[in-house]
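Cross-posted from the bioinformatics board.
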Amino acid sequence: MLLGTLVPLQAVAFALVALGAPLVVLTRDPLRQALVNGIYGVSLVCLFVVLQAADPALSMLVVSGIGYPLVILAAVTRVRGHERTEQKKDEKQ
Amino acid sequence: MSYLPYVVAAWICLVGIAGIATSRNLIHLAVCLTVTQSSSYVLLLSVGYVKHGKAPIFIGTKVGSTAADPVVQALTLTDVVVSVAVIALILALALDAHRLSGSVDPDGIADVSG
Amino acid sequence: MSRRMRMLVLGPALLGLGALFAWAIAGLPAFGDYRGPYGFVLNRVVVPLRHTTNVVMGTTFDVRGLDTMGEEFILYAAIVGVTLLLRDETRSRQAERRTSRLDEDAVRLVGVAMIGGGLLVGLWLMAFGYITPGGGFQGGVLAAGAVLLLYLVGSHRDYRPFRNEHFLDPLEAVGAGGYIIVGLAALASGTAFLTNLFGLGTTGTLVSSGSIALLNWASALAVSCAMLLLFAEFLETYVVPLEPEDAAS
């Protein structure tokens, strides 16, 4: 095939990652973006496995499944909670 | 076509930077930063790939068979875990900015005085 | 500069950066055509020299051990920064907040099963890091995530022992400092910092690879405590107490 030294599986993995990155950036709402980032993380894990990198794949799996959603969701919750208390203060005045 | 991996890495980096520059929300900005960081991982691992090579783990396989480069994999795996803490620090700063100025818009914070 | 100016500058800037990338990519070898000597040398040399079958771990903790020390300190510094920004002494002494408890039994059952599974897999990854893929970094985050699941599935009271700062801060310091102490032990006996001094054992068993095992455990402790601290700071400071109107809506 015309893929040079790329195995077709690797070409598909690269294409998925190249498609996922603009999707993450174009999702403007942070809450939805956390989910899209998780899916992008899974596509990165598939890419790392196909590139014969087992340890980085484990790291990315654990981090994109546990680390990133947690800190993003906690930040979003706090911002909304703050905005709600500010709104209540304005309504009371 | 043999340069597709590097083009993908450059594309992800440019997309991430465009996202950071056009962002209207500091949390969205932090996630775009993670996308930019992932482009460096893709580049590192693509450079370290050896044709017909296996993973550099030699349990059950003979030492000396072709395997991918372990140095770039070592750099990537520690980097991925550390980036969580760095993003957490950026988000904590964003939350402090929100608490002080009332908005998460990067353009809205510039007017805070004192 | 105003937003409009920024957008006008962004387009040409990205094009210029793209041109630089294209120039750089033209000079790279084709994908798969790996020429550098270090990969080939390490793949042949690390297993007989250090008795560890996971060459990536051998590189992380022995051949490039200094880089990993730097990365661990980046982690430590970031956690210190988050703690300084977010830890509020007055808030932690308030009365216990009301938090909602999960009602759906199916979700609770799956969550509880996953706590045990996650913790065991995390510990296994940490322990066998230098034999099969894994290591202190991956296992540490997974084990901390399993403990966090305790917070999500159980109640705040079940999770409270694991967010105790007086317990987590010293443990994380022990992990980060333990790395340095293992390196200094080599220095104290006349060889270079972080030389692998200890007995090398049999390849493929848990008793192998000398100081790589010790450094692996130290970094596992540091990373898991760092993640637990991170979760504790974010969750504790960011749990907004439920108002009665909010509970009804």
